[in-house]
């Protein structure tokens, strides 16, 4: 979690091996993502509603391409399974470009799940979805993580979503992790009632040193 420009999407891009970090190292599923990312990428996947798929291909064609890239066995059955679970069977044969924003969000998530990833990276996974669809997606993600043992790393501004899906929160500001904890733990630490209030405390905190390190004050909020 973090405000716009905090570094959430950049972090995901580095974890995928799309950006090379200027310092430090990234290891995913035992693989160095700078030198040997191909060893991990087959067991990873990513979804963002802000990245489009080819508009002239149908939903089925798009998902078939990705199933082939990941060498998915029985791709037709896997696509049908995801279409039923994520409720897009009725527009499998429609061109991707003709879909609404919410429908595209569901297709992006299906693309990310096509290979049953062990690490699922999600950037605003329920953006553009109505409350009912968003609730169904969150339940599906919870079930998938529990049944598969997969890890999910989610960048989100939806506080209810974070509290429901995440057991560990990393709070970012200006490219740095400035705090970490469970949703309930952070709320208690800052003496607040909601996670949104914690977010605002961190987003609006004034830096007290060049490296932006700070500690909670006696009331639990930022010093």
Descriptive notes:
- The protein has a single domain (8-166), classed as Rossmann fold (3-Layer(aba) Sandwich).
- A hairpin with a 2-residue loop joins strand 6 and strand 7 (176-181).
- It has helices at residues 8-15, 38-41, 59-69, 75-85, 101-113, 131-148, 159-165, 183-189, 195-204, and strands at residues 27-28, 31-32, 44-47, 119-123, 151-155, 169-173, 176-181.
- The longest helix has 18 residues, at 131-148.
- With 223 residues, it is of the alpha/beta class.
Helix and strand element order: HEEHEHHHEHEHEEHH
Give the overall form: globular
Query: How many separate domains?
Result: 1
Average pLDDT number: 90
CATH homologous superfamily label = P-loop containing nucleotide triphosphate hydrolases
**Helix content range:** 25-40%
Tags for this model:
223 residues; alpha/beta; Rossmann fold; 3-stranded parallel sheet; two-stranded antiparallel ribbon; 9 helices; disordered C terminus
């Amino acid at each position: 979690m973090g405000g716009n420009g905090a570094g959430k999407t950049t972090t995901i891009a580095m974890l995928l091996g799309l950006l090379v970090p200027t310092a430090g190292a990234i290891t995913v599923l035992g693989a160095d993502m700078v030198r040997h990312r191909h060893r991990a990428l087959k067991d990873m996947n990513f979804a963002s509603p802000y990245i489009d798929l080819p508009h002239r291909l149908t939903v089925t064609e798009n998902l078939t391409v990705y199933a082939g890239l990941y060498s998915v066995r029985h791709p037709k059955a896997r696509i049908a399974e995801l279409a039923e679970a994520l409720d897009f069977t009725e527009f499998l044969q429609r061109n991707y470009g003709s879909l609404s924003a919410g429908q595209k969000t569901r297709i992006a998530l299906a693309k990310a799940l096509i290979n049953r990833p062990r690490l699922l990276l999600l950037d605003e996974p329920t953006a553009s979805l109505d409350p009912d669809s968003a609730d169904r997606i969150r339940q599906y993600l919870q079930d998938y993580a529990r049944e598969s043992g997969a890890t999910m790393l989610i960048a989100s501004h939806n506080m209810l979503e974070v509290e429901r899906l995440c057991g560990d929160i990393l709070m970012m500001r200006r490219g740095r992790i400035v705090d970490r904890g469970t949703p309930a733990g952070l709320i208690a630490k800052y003496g607040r009632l909601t996670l949104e209030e914690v977010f605002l405390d961190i987003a609006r905190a004034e830096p007290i040193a060049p490296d932006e390190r700070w500690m909670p004050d006696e009331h639990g909020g930022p010093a």
